[in-house]
Amino acid sequence: MSRGRVKTITLATMCFVSFIAHLDTTVVNVALPKIQINLGSSMSALQWILNAYTLPTASLILTSGTLGDIYGRKRIFLAGLVIFTIASVVCGFAPSLGILIAGRTLQGIGAAALVPSSLAILADAFPEPKEKTKAIGIWAAVSAIALVTGPVLGGLLVDTLGWRSVFLLNLSLGVIAFGVTSRVVKESQNPSRQSLDVPGLVLSIVLMASLTYALTQGNAGVGQSPLSFWLLAVSGLSLVGFLVIESHSSHPMLPLYLFNNRTFAIVNVVSVLVFFTFASLLFIFNLFLQQVQGYSATATGLGFLPLNAAYVISLLCSGWFAARLGWRFAISMGLILMAVATLSLIKISADTEYQTIMWNLILSGLGGGLTVAPLAAAAMSSVSSTQAGIASAVLNTSNSLGGVLGVALQGTILTQSLASDLRRSLSAWGLPTNLQDRLIAGALHGGANDLPASISGLAFHQAFSDAFVSGLHTALLIASVALLAGAFLVLLFVQPTFNQVTKNSLISIKQKKT
């Protein structure tokens, strides 16, 4: 087989697998209400269905890059693909919520190996700078397509074949990708073999898992759930231990000296805030459209299409905009636009027409696209070329961390507000406390049974919808404040210079959007 053909097939395969991995971050969202009904899931369980995938990805993405350097990128890529495919089958046939969450965790472990390995394989297959930039640009474009098509494809699958088809789709795709990769893609390693930072890896996993669990467990309130308090204590101790170990390690998983650069440090903080907002609003608005406004999964997926399309279009234009006005202006304007659009959504009610929501979603997508690529470019151009690999991995980790915290914290805030407001309505109807508890628990699990004869299903749904919207308003306010805080940090601390390095970086780093 000619070298040119090998390159083409390698690029196609890496794009194909990237599409699968990024698709799974969006396609599952629209399936959540059906999963909730079928498996009797609580709101916190829905949060775990999402975070069980994102959490291991965020925890392991730094380590998987090192493993690829040591043992071979192709070998780690194939291992991740096998884990991801098997885990998809486990999810597709999961008889219970626990097994589904376990399968999602395995999926996240596999995905953590796929993304950095695929980029490293492309970098090795296309050593010439212009070819490499073009190849990674195509890889990023495919990721963007996955973002746009994910909710729509997920909705169609859920409504026609059931929610399990969202996961079982990966089986045939994974088998094809494994066969092609095994035969065509060549192995590559880093000649200077690195050491694995095992203590740092263990502490980072404990830190992120305990923090996420504490925030999700907070649905019951820290006072009512002492476990949340102890988990927060564990996460705090883990953070201290992690920082101590990383600062003294000769081969740290996270080189802390990178954060001595003010621009790099602030960009990572702002990335956490941006993806905190993205993930939480996608999670909450998906539930709003289906559980409050009665949309089908397909209609919900189509409802997100304007948001995702605006995001991708703005992302593609952001390089032109930032090249002329500087990354600081582009990032801050994007964040302010997102904040204004998000804050404007506070006026919506349970029966607000979709057209009103749509225009705000489009503005939010435009702001997000305007923000993400220049944000990544600012981070990459603030470090030397020899630090580009680890800087990219750190930024991806910040993005994933923001998504984990967004779903965990905002989902908990939504649940607490919903339960509190719904209890007020039930109390006003004069229902006994034990019946209130049962009805609230049923509502948080996707429905309510045993309604007394004095209360119609329509009246209860209206009370649930009003309570949900109250929680949604709180979440929107928090997201708006987070975005405005990010804009303030960028304007105050990020350098305004936009150099040629950044222009070149913008082409190759649009994958940071997911």
Topology (elements, then pairings):
Elements: H1 3-27, H2 32-39, H3 43-71, H4 73-92, H5 97-125, H6 129-161, H7 165-184, H8 198-217, H9 226-248, H10 262-292, H11 297-303, H12 305-325, H13 327-344, H14 354-381, H15 388-428, H16 433-444, H17 457-493, H18 500-508
Helix pairs in contact: 1-5, 1-6, 1-7, 3-4, 3-5, 3-8, 3-15, 4-5, 4-7, 5-6, 6-11, 6-12, 8-9, 8-15, 10-14, 10-15, 10-17, 12-13, 12-14, 13-14, 13-17, 14-15, 14-18, 15-16, 15-17
What does this entry look like structurally?
This protein has 514 residues and is mainly α. Helices cover 80% and strands 0% of the residues. The chain has helices spanning 3-27, 32-39, 43-71, 73-92, 97-125, 129-161, 165-184, 198-217, 226-248, 262-292, 297-303, 305-325, 327-344, 354-381, 388-428, 433-444, 457-493, 500-508. Helix 4 (73-92) packs antiparallel against helix 5, helix 10 runs antiparallel to helix 14 (354-381) and helix 15 runs antiparallel to helix 17 (457-493).
Task: Give the beta-strand count.
Answer: 0
**Sheet with the most strands, sense and barrel status:** none
Share in helix: over 70%
Quaternary structure state of the chains depicted: single chain
Number of helices: 18
Mean pLDDT: 83
Strand content bin: under 5%
How does the overall form come out from the CA principal axes? globular
Alpha-carbon distance between the two ends:
34 Å
Q: Name the structural class.
A: mainly alpha
Radius of gyration: 23 Å
Give the topology string: H per helix, E per strand.
HHHHHHHHHHHHHHHHHH
Parts with pLDDT < 50 across at least 5 consecutive residues: 498-514
